[in-house]
Structure formats: C-alpha cells, structure tokens
Automatic annotation (TrEMBL):
The keyword RNA-binding does not apply. The lineage of its organism: Eukaryota, Metazoa, Chordata, Craniata, Vertebrata. The exocyst complex is composed of EXOC1, EXOC2, EXOC3, EXOC4, EXOC5, EXOC6, EXOC7 and EXOC8. Interacts with EXOC3L1. Interacts with BIRC6/bruce. Interacts with MYRIP. Interacts with SLC6A9. Belongs to the SEC6 family. This is Exocyst complex component 3.
Length: 748
C-alpha cells in the first residue's frame, strides 16, 4: 500500500542521513549530540504541522457561516415575494372571469381557420361530386373512392368542428349535412357497383382479378375508417352520418345471398316436365359447388386479406345453403325413387371424391368434420316414407304382374319356352327384375336399407305366392267348366309349374346376392314357407294336368274288362297313345316336377286298370275265357311297362313293380286248378297286404267259378296268413273301392 511505501522511503532517507553523519570514527562520539539535535528538529516540524491544520479548519468554518447568512437573506426575500404574488392573485381573479369573450374568440378563430382551410374544398364540392360520379360510371372505382373519401373527410371535419363548438346547434349541422347531401348518394352508387362485383366474384376473379382486388381494397379502407370513427365517438361522442358503413359485413351478406340463389337456381325442371328432375337438379348442384369451391381455393383466396378467411367463410355458406336446400327438398312430397336419389346424394355423394372429398380441396376441406346436411331425424322420416311407399308400390307391381300374366293364360298361342325348351311365362323375370332394381337402389344408400328392402321383397313374395296359388286353382276350375277353353290350358299350366322352379331358384340367388350370411336365419322360416307354397302350386298343377289326361282316358278305361274288351277292343292301345301324346307336352315341364308326373301317371294308370277289374263288369264263363282274359291282361301290363319305361327314360326310376300287380292278378284269374286257388290268392295277399276282403271277393267274382262258400272259406283262411311285401311297395289297393252288390243282384 502507499503507506508502506512512504515508510520505506522515510527509512531509506534516514539511513542515508545517518550514514553521512557517521563517516569518520571520531564522529561516533557525537552520536548522542546528533540524536538530541534531530529530536529538536522533529519537535519543531510537528509543531508547525499542527498550527497549519488548525488554520485550515478555521477557514472552513468561516466560509460555512457566511453561506448560512446569505441563505437566510434569500429565504426572507422569497417569503416577501410569495406574500406579494398572493396579494396580486387575489386581486386578479375577477379580471380572469371577464376574459370569457377572449376565449370564445379563440375557439371561433380556430373554427374560422379550419373553415378557411376547407373553403377551397367546400367551394369545389359540386365539381368533385360530378367527377366522382363520372369515375363510378366509368368503373374506375379506386379513384372514385379516393375522391369520395376526400369529400367525406371535408364534411366530417366541418361537422366535428361544429359539434365541438356547439353540439346542440342542429340547424348548422343540418346546413352542412344538406350541402354535402350528394355524398351519401355517391356512397350508395359506389356500393352498388361493389356489390355487383362481389356477386360475380367467382366469375370476376377469372376474367378481371384486378377489379376484384380494387373492390376488396375499397372495402378494407372503409373498415379502417369505420374503426377510427367508432374510436373517436368513444372519446368525443361525435360520429358522422352513415357511419359505421359495415361494408365488410354487407359483402359477406351479399356473398351468402349469392350462394343461396346459385343453389336454388339450379332446379330447371319439375316432375311434370321431367321424371328425372331431382337427379338432374342434384347433379347440377354437385358440379356448381365443386367448381365454385375450386375457384375460391385456387384464385379467390389470394385476392382477399388473410384475416377475411374467405375460403372457409364461403365453404360455410355453401354448406348452409345446401343444408337449407336439402331440407326443402326433403319436405316435398317425394316419390320412392326420388327419396333414394336425395338420400344417396346427401349421405354419399356430398362427402365423396366427386364433391367435398375432391383431393384438390384438401386439406382445407375435411369431410369428416363437415356436419350432416340433414338431421338423422329427417333421414329416418325419409327412410320410413320410402319403405311405406315401396311397400305399396311392390304390392301394386306384383298385383299388376299377376294380372298381366293371367291375361297370357287365356291366349290362343303357346307360352314362350326358355333356352332348354321348358315352357314359362315372364312373371318370375318381371318380379325378380323389380326386386333387383329396388335392391340395387337401396344399396346406394346403405347396407341396412338394402337388408330391409330384401326382407320386404321376400315378405311380399310370400303373400304374392298365396295369390298365385289361388289364381292357378281358379284357372283350373274355370277350365273344368268348359274343357275346350282356354285353348292352351295344358301348356300354360306347365308354364305355371315351371315358374315355381324358377321362383325357387331366384329366391336363392337373390338371398345369396343381397343377404349377409348372419341374416340367413331370420329368413329361413319365410323361405321354407315360400318353398312349401311353391311345391303346393306345382303339385296341384301337376295333378290337374293328370286329371286332364284321365278325363280323356275315361271312355277307354270304361271299356276295360267288358265283353267288348274281351272280344278284342283296342282300349289300352288308345290309352297308351293318349298318355304318350300328353307326355310330349309334359316334356316341357322342368325335371323335378316331370319325374313326379311320370311316376304319378304310371301309378294312376295301374290303379285305374285294377279299379276296372274290381268293378266286376265281366265274369268269365269258362277256363277258355279266363285264359284269354288273363293273357290279354298280361299283354296289356307289358304295353304299360314299355310305355312308362320310355317316358321315364333317363330318370332312373324303377316303377316295374306296378305292372307286376296286374300280372299277379292275371295269374289268379288264369289258374286252371281251383284247388290251388287258395294258394295263389294267399301269395297275392302276402305280396300286397293292403288287399281287402272285398277286393278278393270281387276278383273271385270276375274269375266266375268260385261258389259263395268257397269265397268265404278262402277269405277267412287268408286272415291268418303271414305277409311279406316288397319293402318298396306303396299301398295301391287302399285307393280302390269295390261297388257293393244290391240285393236283387245277390239273389240272381
């Protein structure tokens, strides 16, 4: 530190001085003398230093005292001055109040200064108004707006000055307002031009984008002026006439109206003028909306300030307008196909890639965040209306289809045949084509509706088949009243039978195509019902056709087992030819039913033949006649066997056994040794255990050589015999009744 350095210097100096004093040895004796001398010097220096210090302190005190003295004098002066000012101020209060006139003059002066400033503007107002009007008419909107702003500015400043000077003076305010009256009209004229551009903005943006940009700039400037004026009103309470103009808000309102009109205006046709009016209307809407939004996104957005958020606002407007339009359409009295068109458009098309889901609109348009165009409630109402309309339509269509089909049944020309040569009518095709169309339509909307429509179709099909069955029955009954009519009864009955098979196949394919596997169970019972009804129709049809055959065979069957027959009539030959002839037509019946027909015909021929035996129309007189009759029976059984083998060709049906019954009966009749009769009869009974006593009695009567006792003995003995029928044997005798003999006949 500095102190230590000073100490070191002092010591060094002292050492030098001592060294100077003690250079010779003799000087050492004087050390004490030197020490005293140095002590005296030191004491003298210290005394001098003390005096100096005291002197400087005294000087400082003197200066301080003199300053305090001065300050005291100053304070006294200030105090005196304040007293004087106070006195003057009290005297001048009255004078200030008398200066109001001066103040008013100042205000007036400032107003006059503003008026002078505005004078050149004021005098040129009419001229500027004319120029502005010309600019508007020439479409130079930006320049027109600049001049309009200048005019408004002059008017507003004058009015503001007037307001500040005398806010209650309405007369002067009105004077200014009237003088600048044309400005309001100019503003409206300009606005009219702006709104025309805004209305056509989607077209203008392509043809004359600069014009649109000008319009947007004008609107934006007006917005800023509006804000300024509103702020000033908060501070001063003054706002010029016609403010705020709210042109931005008006612009959006006009856009909104334009969008609504654009969508409503797309309906060119009505149902009366065009059945497809709605489809066309919706397609035009889809196209317009997509085009407009693409233009809005690619061109319009960049012409507007970002805070206008123009694309999203437009998107919203279109969505709202569409929603309104769809609700209006939903409230109309729509037909079934129109309901489907509407729902399909609302639920599917709207959010599809053909419209809002278009890739060029993303990411701005997110279809998942778009609200539904119509509420679920309205959708449900439309769907239920659709289902009820469809139900009555289907009932009507089915009824009409059946009526049309019935008209065909009485035609004099044969029905059409399919590619395999089977007779058919157009009924199944018409019915299932109608079902298909409605299912395809329902599928456009959703799975659920498709399933509902399928259930409806099958349910109606079920009722329809019952009517079909009744109509086929009536057809048969009408024909029986006069067998000559209708001319093609057999062919049309065959077509009805074949239709049953087609219906069965169509139901299966319809379910396979339109029904999910898990729904299969809910329908199985109605399907079983329909199959059962179809089988009944086909079965009744087949049986009525066989009735036809046997009505024609009746005279020939009546000839069997008569004298004429024994003499050599050709009844069986005619029977075979007639059956074969009918079966040429029956070849047009589809396989499963044709097979049943052949078996049934075979069976009925044999039954009728045995019935002829049991009618006891002949009783052989002798062994010769019995032999002849029995051989004829065996020969005829062979004819039948040959015929039915031919008819059943390829069906692999074993019906040989039926003709065996005729042969077995012939053997009983042919037998020459009466003692073996019991054995022969018991063999017959064991083979065909449904033979009753009256059958045996009738058989023995035809044989003609058994007494009553013998008959009785045989019958009584037979009851104990065992039976061993063929396991495939279908009882045949139980269908055959034997006429009972009247008393006179017994007595003969």
């Amino acid at each position: 530190s500095t102190m230590e350095e000073t100490d070191r210097e002092a010591v060094a100096t002292a050492v030098q001085r001592v060294a100077g004093m003690l250079q010779r040895p003799d000087q050492l004796d004087k050390v004490e003398q030197y020490r005293r001398r140095e002590a005296r010097k030191k004491a003298s220096v210290e005394a001098r230093l003390k005096v100096q210090t005291i002197q400087s302190q005294l000087d400082g005190v003197r200066t301080g005292l003199s300053q305090l003295h001065n300050a005291l004098n100053d304070v006294k002066d200030i105090q005196q001055s304040l007293i004087d000012v106070n006195k003057d101020w009290r005297q001048s209060i009255n004078t200030i109040e008398n200066l109001k006139d001066v103040k008013d003059a100042v205000v007036q002066h400032s107003q006059l200064a503003a008026a002078v400033e505005n004078l050149k503007n004021i005098f040129s107002v009419p001229e500027i108004v004319r120029e502005t009007q010309d600019l508007i008419e020439r479409g130079e909107l930006l320049q027109a707006h600049r001049k309009l702003m200048d005019l408004e500015c002059s008017r507003d400043n004058l009015m503001y000055e007037q307001y500040r000077m005398d806010s209650k003076n309405t007369h002067d305010m009105n004077l200014i307002h009237t003088y600048f009256g044309d400005i309001q009209k100019l503003s409206e004229e300009l606005a009219k031009q702006l709104w025309m551009v805004v209305q056509r903005s989607l077209v203008t943006v392509r043809r004359d984008p600069t014009l649109l940009v000008s319009v947007v700039r004008i609107i934006d400037r007006e917005e800023k002026i509006d804000r300024r004026m509103i702020d000033r009103k908060k501070q001063t309470g003054f706002i010029p006439p016609g403010r705020p103009k709210k042109w931005k808000e008006k612009m959006f309102n006009i856009l909104e109206r334009t969008v609504s009109t654009r969508i409503e205006g797309t309906q060119a046709d009505t149902r009366e003028s065009d059945k497809m009016w709605l489809v066309r209307h919706l397609e035009i809407i889809r196209k317009y909306v997509l085009d407009d939004l693409l233009v809005a996104k690619t061109l319009l957005e960049e012409r507007f300030p970002p805070h206008y958020d123009i694309f999203n606002k437009l998107l919203n407007m279109y969505h709202q307008a569409l929603s309104t339009r769809m609700q209006e359409l939903a409230a109309e009295d729509l037909e079934a196909n129109e309901i489907v068109s509407l729902l399909s458009w609302v639920l599917n098309t709207y959010k599809s890639a053909e419209m809002m889901g278009n890739s060029e609109l993303s990411p701005e348009v997110d279809v998942n965040s778009l609200d539904a165009l119509i509420s679920q409630n309205v959708v449900d109402q439309l769907l239920s209306k659709y289902m009820s309309t469809l139900t009555s339509n289907i009932i009507g269509w089915l009824r009409k289809a059946l009526e049309t089909d019935k008209k065909d049944w009485i035609k004099e020309t044969e029905p059409e045949a399919d590619q395999d040569g089977y007779y058919q009518t157009t009924l199944p095709a018409i019915v299932f084509q109608m079902f298909e169309q409605n299912l395809q339509v329902a599928a456009q909307i959703n799975e659920d509706l498709k399933t509902k429509v399928l259930l409806l179709c099958l349910q109606q099909m079920n009722s329809f088949l019952t009517r079909y069955k009744d109509e086929a029955q009536l057809y048969k009954e009408e024909h029986l009243k006069n067998r000559q009519y209708p001319q093609c009864y057999v062919q049309y009955m065959i077509a009805v039978i074949n239709n049953c098979q087609t219906f069965k196949e169509s139901i299966i394919s319809l379910k396979r195509k339109y029904l999910k596997m898990e729904m299969e169970d809910t329908l199985s019972s109605s399907h079983t019902n329909m199959d059962a009804t179809l089988d009944i129709i086909a079965k009744e049809g087949c049986s009525s056709l066989l009735d036809e055959v046997f009505m024609d065979l009746e005279p020939h069957l009546n000839e069997l087992m008569t004298k004429k027959w024994l003499m050599g009539s050709n009844a069986v030959g005619t029977i075979c030819v007639t059956v074969e002839d009918y079966f040429n037509d029956f070849a047009k019946i589809k396989k499963p039913y044709r097979k049943t027909m052949t078996i049934e015909a075979h069976r009925r021929v044999v039954v009728e033949y045995i019935r002829a035996i049991m009618l006891k129309r002949i009783s052989f007189k002798n062994a010769e006649e019995r032999k002849e009759g029995a051989e004829r029976m065996i020969k005829e059984a062979e004819q039948f066997r040959f015929l039915f083998k031919k008819l059943a060709a390829g069906s692999g049906e074993d019906t040989e056994g039926l003709c065996d019954i005729i042969e077995a009966i012939a053997e009983v009749i042919k037998l020459t040794d009466p003692s073996l009769l019991y054995l022969e009869v018991s063999t017959l009974v064991s083979k065909y255990p449904d033979i009753r006593d009256d059958h045996i009695a009738a058989l023995l009567t035809v044989r003609g050589d058994a007494s009553r006792d013998m008959k009785q003995t045989i019958i009584e003995t037979l009851d104990q015999g065992p039976s061993q029928p063929n396991p495939n044997y279908v009882p045949i005798f139980k269908e055959i009744t034997v006429p009972t003999l009247t008393v006179p006949k017994l007595l003969k």
